[in-house]
Amino acid sequence: MLQNLIVGLIVAWALWVAAMRLLPRPLRAALRRYAARLAGAIGLARLAQKLTTSASAAGSCGGCDSCGDKPAAAPAKDGVVGGIGVEALRRTIRR
Fold first, then answer.
1. Residue 73 belongs to a domain
2. In Å, how far are 10, 18, 19, 71, 87 from 14, measured between CA atoms?
3. Does residue 54 lie within any of the structural domains?
């Protein structure tokens, strides 16, 4: 009986971790809010507060974590993107 409970908790935790990594941001925030309400209802106030804080920290638009007005940086004219040039990449190709 105890073994089944432990396995169930492990499976639930794995499902939670997968959902928090793979679901889109608005669904993750909604899932966190629901989990916070559920935790508060069963008397886990500290967990509910932690889940509420992390759910409210997400961006409002569900976008990219960057709410600035800066446009995306264009690659340099010599083909260097992120410090790696096209020629350097060509030299690393295995033939």
1. no
2. 6, 6, 9, 38, 43
3. yes
